[in-house]
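Weekly structure sync, notes
Attendees: PL (lead), two postdocs, one rotation student
Agenda item 3: pending single-chain targets
PL asked that the sequence for the first pending target be pasted directly into the notes so everyone works from the same version. It is reproduced below exactly as submitted, 295 residues in total.
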Amino acid sequence: MKARLIVLVLFTSLFVQTIDAREFRCSVAVNYRQLQGSGFSFLDDLSDLVEEYINKNNWTDDSFEIEEYIECSMQIIIQEALTLTSFRARLVLTSTRPIYGTTAKTTVLQINDDDWEFSFSQGTPLVFETERYDALTSVLDFYAYIMLGYDYDTFSEYGGEEWFQKAKRIQEIAASKNATGWSTLNRGRRPELATQLTEVRLRPLRQAYFKYHYEGLDHFTKDTNAARRAILDVLGTMQELYDNLSRQFVFDVFFSTKYKELVAIFERSDMTTEAYALLTEVDPSHLSTYTEMVQ
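Predicted structure, written out during the meeting:
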């Protein structure tokens, strides 16, 4: 039984049905309203194909219970038709997980990737073969493993290592093909994530991510003050990393995902001032939101 399952057993005492290895419950929407002309209705098929691709393929060898599914959403926004069957698109991705002791969920990952070019025509199958580069499916593969890595990291320290390494492998294969959006020579969502999530010097950030969820959110209803203190410790770790390593993309991912949740955690508490001082230093891009917390 995998570490993630061991932890999630604590989430429920109800009988659950074990099913074969499926990891995601993902909803997919494709928006092509920006395209001119009426010849693109075949893109309506893409949402169902991607949804089936994410939800039906086996991404791990682990057995997931129904309540363990990673809930996620993908919005594929077609921005430009490069040809009749090739497109430039933006992917907006969100994944969540439950918070122990509550009916609430927390957003684990939120990504906006606007550097995606792929080809798709009516009747095109999506072939699951992660060692082969494909402009469409390699992005799906990459982010499936990124979501798995983040999710596993919230349940055990460095629990997502295997999945981040798989995402890194996909990025390396794509970069070897000089594919758009994959090269480490240019700043981009995918190469930055693949590199930073597997760097030894940033492992303390992943450890802090585990502490944020497991010692912070999951214990919030049991001991709110201790949970807040654990999250303040996380922010302190991030401050140290920020000072030593400067701004890294994974910091932006964390705060763009969590800044509203952080305000909800600390507002009207005796730790508000301390939290505000840390947050405004490590995440000045959301200063106006943090300022509302202390007014």
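Discussion points:
- Confidence is low (pLDDT under 50) at residues 8-20.
- Residues 232 and 275 are 7 Å apart (CA to CA).
Action: rotation student to compare against the earlier draft before next sync.
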